[in-house]
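Chapter review: from sequence to fold.
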Amino acid sequence: MRKLAILTFQTLDGVMQAPSGPEEDISEGFTHGGWANECWSEVMEQVGREAMREPYDLLLGRNTYDVFASSFANAPAENPTAEILNQAKKYVVTSRACKLQWQNSEKITGNIEAEITRLKKQSGPLLQVHGSWLLIQTLLEHGLIDEYRLWTFPVVLGSGKRLFSKGTIPAMHKLIKFESCPSGAFMHFYRPSESVMVRPNRVPR
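The token string follows.
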């Protein structure tokens, strides 16, 4: 059985929407796209070193898949990031009928929980989710995430799609790796803890 990890860029207040550009995701009237750019180069060095060297398959939502495909599918062969992503197997959660054009891509449709559980039971490399906010909400709901690979940027936005949104189930997590950047961004990896989250008793009014 293989593990599933999410790789997420977020602000200090937990927003993960459109880190790299203003047009990446403007849904719900979001106007702060590109908020990660000041720290981008040093964070991407960390990402390459800590999360992209080991073999992995990609699990992506359709919008993130389209963004990645437009950036990397036809990138020059000497681009190391493009080479890794092009060679990786890509599982794409989508309800659209159109064919996936990026090489090594396979659709996931129907019962998403059951399909991802099936993928996890297969032999193979790590399943790694990049971006894909809506997909992550489904993974959180069904307890399918084995590791959180988070990069937090020294930015506060006040609005936008948050990693842990309304309805998130309370849970404890164990920190397994941490590293900061000179810019103030920091990497932190967590795994779900076996400890039970105890809610404090409420005093009746």
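Two observations follow directly from the output. Helices lie at 40-51, 62-72, 80-87, 112-121, 133-141. Strands lie at 4-11, 56-61, 90-93, 105-108, 126-130, 147-153, 173-180, 186-192.
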